[in-house]
Amino acid sequence: MNVSGLVVRAVPEHLDDVMEALKTDGLCDIHFYDLTGKIIVTVEGGAAGEEVEKMRKIMDLPHVVSAELAYSCNENGPDQAMEISCGGTGPVPEGLNQ
Question: What pTM was estimated for this model as a whole?
Fold first, then answer.
């Protein structure tokens, strides 16, 4: 299981609409929000791709300005996360080391 924390930014005038859409769509759990339109949520998935798909759906909701990944946690630990994201547990891939 993977859990990721996102910062969702909504148009402040439509914060209630976005909050309602997030609740009814079942894409995430809402933890905090403020009146400037920032909403802190977590998404869960069996695999990283499932979380990414949920993040894309959140970004496509009306009045959502952005959804940014704040953290990601894999219950199987950092070694499996490294294997999934980089194809191994070696050094940081060249393209990411700039």
Answer: 0.75
